[in-house]
Structure formats: C-alpha cells, structure tokens
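#structure-requests
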Amino acid sequence: MKFHRYCFAAGMTLFFLSSAGTSPAAEELLTIPEMAVTTRIVKRNPIDSVRRISASSEKTLYCFTRVNAPDDEERRISHIWYRNGETVAEYELPVRGSRWRTFSKKVIEKGMRGAWRVEAVDEEGNLLKAVEFTMN
C-alpha cells in the first residue's frame, strides 16, 4: 500500500512540475505548417515547390509561408535568403491574423548558382522553419 501512495505522490509531483514549466510565452509562439520556394503564387497559394532549378529558367522565385498565430494580434516574421551560406536578402513581413499567408520574392540574376536556403524567423530571431533548394 505504501508503494502505491508513493507512486501516486511522485506522479502528482511530476505533473505539477511539468505544468509549472509551461510559460505563457510558449503558448504565444508562431508556427509554420507550410513553407515552400515556388516559381509562382496563384490564388494566394504556391503552384510548385522548388528543390532544384536552373538559374536561366526563372526570373523570380517566391518563398510562400503559411503562418499560424495564437491570436489575431499583429506580428512580424522575416524571410532571410542565403546563397552558399551568405545572406543575400532579408524581408520583414507582417502577420495580421491567426491564419496568415505571406511571401517574399527574389529576383534571379545571372551567376546566382549555388546552394540556397530561406529561413523564416520571428521578431526575436528564433528560427521557425527553413527550406533549401539548389540553383544550377
């Protein structure tokens, strides 16, 4: 009988400790259920998801991002575009609702071959999601 009371007490202690560790800030986090580099956006949605592309085939690429927020309070995210590990562009984008779609675009110029990555970060600089692609 003592063993069962001990297990119950230990379980309740763990429950309260884990509940106490949840901060209100954790509930206010933005999440990104969908992010894609695409050649075009039609009716507010990406038409494809680029993984490998020729620099001569497209003049512009878009980074589409679907954002979920805990409320309708306005926030901001940034898209940071990297080529071969170096920052080439940064765009600040508003998030004005609990379910929001946004995008940034990058004009493709001659000689932009390499390994690319686009990161979505919140206002504090926390990485929310990243996508990678290669430009030949």
